[in-house]
Every structure is written in C-alpha cells, then in structure tokens.
Design goal:
The complex is a heterodimer of chains A (196) and B (162). With 196 residues, chain A is of the alpha+beta class. Chain A is built from three helices and ten strands. Chain A has helices at residues 71-100, 109-119, 182-193; strands spanning 4-7, 17-20, 38-41, 50-53, 59-60, 130-133, 139-145, 148-156, 159-166, 174-177. The two termini of chain A are 27 Å apart. Chain B contains five helices and eight strands; from the N terminus they run ββββαβαββααβα. The chains are: A alpha+beta (196), B alpha+beta (162). Chain A binds chain B through residues 94, 98-99, 102-105, 130, 132-136, 140, 142, 144-149, 151, 153, 155, 161, 163, 165-167, 175-177, and chain B through 25, 27-30, 32-36, 43-45, 48-51, 54-55, 57-60, 134, 138-139, 142-143, 146.
C-alpha cells in the first residue's frame, strides 16, 4: 500500500482536509461511487502542488441514512447492531428460564417490545446494553462506560425509571421517572458522541 | 452468637459500620465498573425482592432482602464470601449506614434448624423496608434500590473468580 498522488494545480490552502469532486481524482478510491466527493488529507503537499495521499483508500462523504463515513464505521455499526440483538435474545431467554424455575416472574413481552422499540435507534451507535430482567416482567438496560452511568428500567407502557450520572458533569444528573424517555435519549446521544 | 450490639434474633442492627453481604445470581447479573465511584458493582436489580403476587407458583418469597452479616461471619472464623458458590453467584458488600440513610431497617434473622434447601445460617440478616416500598411507592422503590446498588461493591474474591 504505497503512497500515490494526483495533480491538483490550485493555490495552496491552509486547512488539512479538502473535499474534492470525484471526477478530479484520477487515482485510487476503488469503491467510491462516481457522484460522491472525496475527502482527502492534503497535509503533505509538495512544492509543485502535488497532493500526496498517505494511503490509496480515500474516504467518502458521510452517508445520510446510516451516518457512517467509512467501511470501518459501517462494519462497526453492523457488529454493534448484531450484539444489540444478541443481548436482547439472550436476556429474554434468561428471563424465560428464570420464570420457569420460579426464580422470577415471566417477562412481559409488551414491556420488552417497548424497550426494543425505544432503544433500537441506538443499535449501531452504542455498544450493547447490559440487560437485566426486572420484577413485574420489566427490563433494565444499562450502560456504564466513558464516564457515564445510564440506566433505563422499563416497568410498563410509558413507565420507565431512568438514572443518568456523568463523571464529566456534561450531562445533568437525573434519577426519576422518564416516561417519554426524553432525558434517557438525550444522555444516550451524548454517550454515543463520546470517543471510545 | 449475635452480632455486636444486637440483643437477639429479629432485633435491629444499629452499628452503621456493620457490613452486609448480599448474593446475586451470575447468570442474571454481570458486574461492571461504576463510572462515578470507580468500583465494581452489580445492577440495581440485585436488590429486587421475590414477591408472591408476582410469582404465585414460586416456593421462595422475600419478606425482606436477605443478607449475611460480616461481623457474625468474622466472629465464627468464616470469610465474608461464606456460602457463596462463585460459579453461580456474585457477592456484594454494603454498609448498614447506607440502609439507615435510606430509612431502611436492618435486623439479625438467624436461620436455625432448617432443613435443605434453606439450611442453617446463623449469620443471616434482613434489610427491611424495600418490600413495603415496592407495594406502596414504586418510584421511591426504584430510587432506593438504585442507591443501594451504587453504595455496594463486588467482593474481590468474586472478581478473582472471573
């Protein structure tokens, strides 16, 4: 994977990254659709205005639908989605087994479906939650990472108790009912924006 | 032998520095690092009681949250993870003072002369008030089990097991 270059004879600019029309890039970018622009790092510019790319794989502009910007982030999102699904499947299996063993009341699939509907939006954005069956057939979904404790206890239709704590104090602490999950969603958005 | 400062079975434990040990099923619970305290703990669900109105077919119900009393274990020469099969359970520790701050009572409830599967447990105790909250005020109940969980910590022996 050697470096390659394209001629791009415009005046020097100060920013490191440039969006260049795909038609103006003559080399590389194998899987890029022709109509998409290419974002390139131009930090290594020679005196004759030849842009030297550090690697022959260019990066497409962010897709609107999935919010991904590289094949790597797309794959990460898909893996997270699978782990999200696996977590729900494992948890409902566990809850069913515990109910059969008289160790817990049976899971309410209405509550669990509500939980899935509420959290599925985050399936490509966040690692799988820690899922724990609750009394009353409910479900607890928790994330404890990147400085945040977020717990969402689904106890019924529009009946959720939410815990939000942020060691960085960027998100206000909250402990109480959040039936529309407004606070929970806000905190989960913040968490998804934090780098790993 | 009763824990220090406790006059007899069923009586309250008043020492806020007394340590309580509660078990959580490994299959149901996973430990994590609390992002505020930096300590390993379990989800708040570990402090949910088993109730007859929810599990009418079940054999075992909780009048209160079951715990072991650390000073009683120590006096008998037992480790704090006594009776905890690490392949099946985690154990967390919690101070009595945390319970008192949440308006919960703690009592010594020795189990003597019980056949299997209950068996004897002279170190047995109870956290009282959580069951009542579950039935009367589910929001406050959630607040209380959250704070109990946040104040608890997984025993190092459990972490060493995996």
């Amino acid at each position: 994977m050697g470096a390659f270059s394209v001629s791009y004879a415009e005046t020097a600019e100060t920013s490191t990254w440039r969006t260049i029309p795909r038609s103006r890039v003559g080399v590389g970018g194998g899987a890029i659709a022709p109509h998409q622009p290419v974002i390139v790092n131009i930090s290594n510019v020679s005196h004759n205005n030849v842009y030297r790319f550090m690697a022959p794989v260019a990066t497409t502009a962010p897709g609107i639908a999935l919010g991904t910007n590289t094949p790597g982030t797309f794959i990460t999102g898909m893996r997270r989605s699978r782990e999200f699904l696996d977590a729900f499947v494992s948890a409902v299996s566990l809850a069913t087994e515990m109910a059969a063993a008289d160790e817990a009341d049976p899971p309410s699939m209405e509550i669990w479906q509500n939980a899935w509907d509420a959290l599925a939006f985050f399936q490509t954005k966040l690692p799988a939650p820690l899922l724990t069956p609750l009394q009353l057939g409910g479900l607890s979904a928790e994330w404890h990472e990147r400085g945040m404790n977020i717990e969402v206890r689904f106890r019924g239709a529009e009946n959720a108790f939410v815990v939000i704590q942020d060691a960085r104090k960027e998100v206000p602490e909250f402990l109480g009912p959040d039936p529309k999950l407004i606070r929970a969603r806000g905190a989960l958005e913040k968490l998804s924006a934090r780098p790993f | 032998v009763a824990p220090a400062g406790v006059s007899g079975p069923g009586n309250p434990i008043l020492d806020p520095d007394e340590e309580l040990i509660r078990r959580g099923l490994r299959g149901k619970h996973r430990y994590f690092i609390d992002q505020i305290t930096g300590k390993p703990r379990l989800p708040a669900a570990i402090f949910e009681p088993r109730l007859p109105e929810l599990q009418p077919r079940a054999k075992n119900f909780d009048e209160y949250l079951f715990v072991n009393i650390a000073s009683s274990l120590a006096a008998a020469g037992e480790a704090s993870d006594w009776g905890c099969d690490h392949s099946k359970f985690y154990a967390v520790s919690l101070m009595v003072g945390v319970c008192h701050a949440l308006s919960l009572g703690v009592t010594w409830e020795p189990i003597i002369g019980e056949p299997a599967p209950t068996n004897d447990n002279p170190h047995h105790g109870g956290i009282r008030g959580v069951v009542e909250l579950f039935r009367s005020n589910i929001v406050q109940y959630d607040v209380v089990i959250t704070k109990l969980a946040q104040a608890s910590e997984v025993l190092p022996q459990c972490l060493a097991y995996g």
